[in-house]
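Reviewer 2 asked us to include a model.

Predict the structure of this chain.
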Amino acid sequence: MKRELRLTRGEYWLLETVVEARIPLCWLDWPSMEEALNKQGHGLDRSRLLRTLYRLFRSGLIEAHRFHDPEDYFIPSRQEISAALDETQSPGQNPMYYGLTGEGGAAWEAFAAPTWQRFIDLSFQPLEASTTEIGQGICADRGRLERYVDGLSYTGITIDSSTMVWDELIPWQATYWKTLPRGYQVTFHCQRSEEPSSWDRMPLSYYLVYENRWYSWR
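Predicted model (structure tokens):
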């Protein structure tokens, strides 16, 4: 019989925090952690944090790597975890990062029950020597992505519709640990204005973009 997985609040917090991207362990012991992560803290003191991280590493739910060696994953010792919590991200340093394993991702999914069809991956890259940026959005639901990209105009982003290019990604690597059968990708050129459009003209669905709820998926 398969053993039922149980997670403490601290364990779940540590898994949920790295669902979309790996982060440095030292962030977890910063006084400004909540500001850096833009979320409520884990509520663990240093001793409990160290024990919880060690337990997750030993359970195979998370793994570590060094910043300069992103493909060299390992399970750190308790002493290495403690030292990593004291590291900095100063230039020339090589801090330890942590992220989910496939098993850890599955454990998080079992508790969070995410709706992957709603997940949107949006990024921007500046064009060299230009005020124009290249935007890219990916979602498993093309219609949802179309509505979201259309709503970017309310955040002060003007898209050149003549540059929009759509592609299908089969499969789509949605996060570093999660692959979905299909994703719809759009790329475009855009520019940012100093001020977003008037709030009083903004539909509720677009207003919630600012609260990160319109496209909530977990």
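The domain at 9-111 is CATH 1.10.10 (Arc Repressor Mutant, subunit A). The chain has two domains: 9-111, 116-207. We have added this to the supplementary material.
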